[in-house]
Design brief:
InterPro entries: Integrase_cat-core (IPR001584). The chain has about 70 residues and is mostly helical. It is built from three helices and no strands. The chain has one domain.
């Protein structure tokens, strides 16, 4: 693992902790904790706006920069 990978992981983990842990002291079970993390990752990867994507959500960015491919078939 190189330095850039470590920095990205630290940033991701810091964001996860900052957005999921405030006010949460305990979860009832490991399954409940996994569900919270799963929901956060799903939202982060599909709906949350990212600075590297011109402040669009990943889904909106992908839709804006992809074509259906039908116009370009030769």
């Amino acid at each position: 693992m190189d330095r850039r990978d470590r920095e990205q992981r630290r940033s991701f983990n810091a964001t996860l902790k900052r957005e999921t842990l405030p006010g949460a002291t305990r979860w009832g079970s490991p399954r409940a904790a996994r569900l919270v993390v799963f929901r956060w990752i799903t939202r982060y990867n599909t709906k949350q706006r990212h600075s590297h994507g011109n402040y669009l959500s990943p889904t909106s960015y992908e839709n804006a920069h992809t074509t259906d491919g039908l116009d370009h078939v030769a």
